[in-house]
Amino acid sequence: MIPMPYVVRRAHRETTDTFTLEMAPTVETTVAPFLPGQFNMLYAFGVGEVPISVSGNPAESACLTHTVRAVGSVTRALCDADPGDMVGVRGPFGTSWPVDGAMGGDVMLVAGGLGLAPLRPAMYAVLSNRSAFQRIVLIYGARTPDDLLYRREVEKWGGHPDLQVEVTVDSGGRDWQGHVGVVTTLIGRTVFDPARTTAFICGPELMMRFTVLELLRQGVAEERIFVSLERNMKCGVGLCGHCQLGPFLTCRDGPVIAHSRARDWLGRREA
């Protein structure tokens, strides 16, 4: 429950309101290991604490990476951090994307907006053991081209000969040459075997619900569709009950959960 002090090594602006922070521990130790999809509680000293998914490489032992959107006082303080500033870190917490369970088959990652950040470690994990998987598909959607995260990295993935990367925006503007529309319209354009596909989905709940429906229509088994649930977590360890969603405490039983377990609760508003 006590945050460990980390120092900001680099703060990179992704969009007008979103930054990626690279941090290192201040004591002589390596970064606490995490699994793709897990989160940390980040503490802005004197302001407060928020849950933020880890967005870096699980194999990286020297740096901890988080992508943060400024939407409140704590996240604004984190986004305003400069190299050398201190941030408190607790974690990692929560469940992870079942990367090992997807081995031997196709993997589809579907991200909406900031949802690419929790999926990025899963992509790193899959690519680090590429021969263990068949087809790999990434579908990524954002509101506008200016809202796209990790643009150079996504372009690099798109140039990989054995990856299929599809990017779309809700509104493209005059200079946008890519696809315009919701992510579900791109599923039919991708090549995958529904019988052996595992899907990881993260984004706004409305987007996740319609993505699941389309994948089910395509023949993907519901128990092989996983979503990441967001609720207002406070303690991170299942004690306070603030993030309760029906029978689940999303900080403990989530955020990653099979849709077959979450279907009745996905879309329920917080009290």
Outline the secondary-structure elements.
Layout: E1 4-13, E2 18-25, E3 39-44, E4 48-53, E5 64-69, H1 73-79, E6 86-93, E7 106-112, H2 116-128, E8 136-142, H3 151-158, E9 164-169, E10 179-180, H4 184-187, E11 197-202, H5 205-218, E12 225-228, E13 244-245, E14 248-249, H6 250-253, E15 256-258, H7 259-262
Parallel strand pairs: 7-8, 7-11, 8-9, 9-10, 11-12
Antiparallel strand pairs: 1-2, 1-6, 2-5, 3-4, 3-6, 12-15, 13-14
Question: What report would you give on this structure?
Answer:
With 271 residues, the chain is an alpha/beta fold. It has 2 domains: 4-93, Beta Barrel (Elongation Factor Tu (Ef-tu), domain 3), CATH 2.40.30; 100-228, Rossmann fold (3-Layer(aba) Sandwich), CATH 3.40.50.80. It is built from 7 helices and 15 strands. The protein has helices spanning 73-79, 116-128, 151-158, 184-187, 205-218, 250-253, 259-262, and strands spanning 4-13, 18-25, 39-44, 48-53, 64-69, 86-93, 106-112, 136-142, 164-169, 179-180, 197-202, 225-228, 244-245, 248-249, 256-258. The strands form 3 sheets. It has a 7-stranded mixed beta sheet with strand order 10-9-8-7-11-12-15, with helices on both faces. The radius of gyration is 18 Å and the shape is globular.
